[in-house]
Design a protein that fits this description.
Two copies of one chain form a homodimer. The first copy, chain A, is an alpha/beta fold. Chain A has ten helices and five strands; from the N terminus they run ααβααβααβααβαβα. In chain A, α5 packs parallel to α8. The longest helix of chain A is centred in the first third of the chain and has 24 residues.
Chain lengths: 225, 225
C-alpha cells in the first residue's frame, strides 16, 4: 500500500512536471491565441449545468450567453482552431461533465486543404472521445455553414463549397450512428445558389449580427429541450 | 404639427438610408472582425443593469461573465480595436445607459506609432463623450498594462514601454478631473524591471489564464461596489 502510494505520487509528480515543462516551452503547434484562450478556459472550468458552445472563430465571435439570455451558455470557441486543436484542449470541458455541448468545426481544416474524408474521420473521433469521456452530456453536432467566395477574402477557401457540402453529407449519418444529435443549420444561411447569404457576412466566411440571430433561432429548440 | 411630423419622418428615413448605405458599402476603415463584432453588439444591446467591459483584444480574450460569475458583465472588446474605433461603435452601448463601463484601450494606438499625448487626448475625448451621453453610468478607466518585448513577437511595440508609462501618467489626472474612476492595474502585472511578467503571457502583450485571475482581483472591488 505504501509502495502503491509512492508510485502514485511519482506518477502525479511526473505528470505535473510534464505539464509545467510544456507550459514553459510553449509548443508552437498552434498560435498564441490558442494557448491564451485554452489557459483561460482551464481557469474558468465547466460544470454539470453548463451548455458549451465549442468550435472555431464562428463560435468565438459571439456573446452566446447574451444571445440566449442564459448565463450557463459558455463560449469555448477559438479563432482559427482546427479539430485536432479542439481535441487537445477539450480536457477541461469534458472534465466538468457539461449538460450539453454544441460542436461546430471544420472550416480551418478545410482551409488547410485536408480532404472531406479525413475531416469527417477526425470529427468522428472527436465525437467518440466526447461520448466516451462524458456519456451523460448531450452532444449536438452542427453542420458546417456555407461560405461565399464572391467576397474573395479567403483564398484558401476558394472552390471549397463542395468540400463543405461533402463533409456535411459524410458526418450526418456518422453523428447519428454515434448517438449524438445532428443539427443541419446549413440551409438557413444559404442564398438561391447555396452560398452564404451576402447580407449575413462581410468576408464570405464569418457572420454579422443578423447571422447570429438566425443561428440562435436554429439552436433555440435544442438549447431549451 | 403635420409639417413637423413629415420633417421627423424625412429625417428618420434619411438616417435609416445612411445606415443601410454604410452597411452595404462596408467602409474599410477597420478590419472585418471589427464590423462583425460591432454588428453583433448592436443586436445584443445593453441595459441599465449591464456592466460593460470595453476595449481591445485584452478585453475580447476573456469570458468576463464567467470570470466574475455575473451574467450582467458583458464583453464589448474587439481584437485590434483603437480608441477611434471604440468611439465609433459605442452608440449601442451608451444608448443602453449601463450601470458601469470598464474601459481599457490604447495598445493598438501605441502600435500604430501615435504619440502618448495624442493617445491621451483621444482617450480624454472618449471619456468626455461617455460622461456626457450617459452621465449616470459609472465609468472606470483602467491603466494600460505593461508589455514584455523579450518575447520579440510584436515588432511595432518594440521600445514602447515608456510610451505606455507616459500615457498612464497623462491619463490618471485627466480621468480623475473628468469625474471617472481611475484604476491603476499596471503594477499588478509587472516583474522587477516593470515589464509584463513572463509567466502571465506567451507573446509579451496578451494574457494567459492566470493573468486574467490577477485582473479579476484588481477589478472585483469596483465590480461589487
Amino acid at each position: 500500500m505504501n509502495l502503491l502510494r509512492k508510485l502514485s505520487c511519482a506518477i502525479l509528480a511526473t505528470a505535473a512536471f510534464t505539464t509545467l515543462a510544456q507550459t514553459q516551452t510553449q509548443p508552437a503547434k498552434y498560435n498564441e491565441l490558442y494557448y491564451q484562450r485554452a489557459s483561460i478556459f482551464d481557469e474558468l472550468g465547466v460544470d454539470s449545468t453548463s451548455i458549451v458552445m465549442l468550435g472555431n472563430s464562428l463560435t468565438h465571435g459571439c456573446e452566446w450567453h447574451e444571445l440566449f439570455g442564459m448565463p450557463n451558455v459558455l463560449n469555448r470557441g477559438i479563432n482559427g482552431d482546427v479539430i485536432a486543436g479542439i481535441r487537445e484542449r477539450i480536457g477541461s470541458i469534458v472534465a466538468g461533465r457539461p449538460a450539453k455541448i454544441f460542436l461546430l468545426a471544420g472550416a480551418n481544416d478545410v482551409s488547410h486543404d485536408l480532404s472531406a474524408d479525413s475531416i469527417a474521420t477526425a470529427l468522428g473521433e472527436l465525437v467518440d472521445y466526447i461520448r466516451q469521456t462524458t456519456p451523460d452530456t448531450k452532444l449536438y453536432v452542427q453542420s458546417m455553414l456555407p461560405i461565399n467566395n464572391s467576397f474573395g477574402r479567403y483564398k484558401l477557401m476558394a472552390g471549397k463549397e463542395d468540400t463543405i457540402r461533402r463533409i456535411n453529407s459524410l458526418i450526418e449519418p456518422m453523428v447519428k450512428a454515434k448517438g449524438a444529435t445532428w443539427i443541419n443549420i446549413h440551409p438557413a444561411f444559404c442564398d438561391a445558389e447555396g452560398n452564404l447569404r451576402s447580407d449575413l457576412t462581410n468576408d464570405g466566411l464569418h457572420l454579422l449580427g443578423p447571422g447570429y440571430l438566425i443561428w440562435r433561432d436554429q439552436l433555440l429548440p435544442y438549447i431549451k429541450e
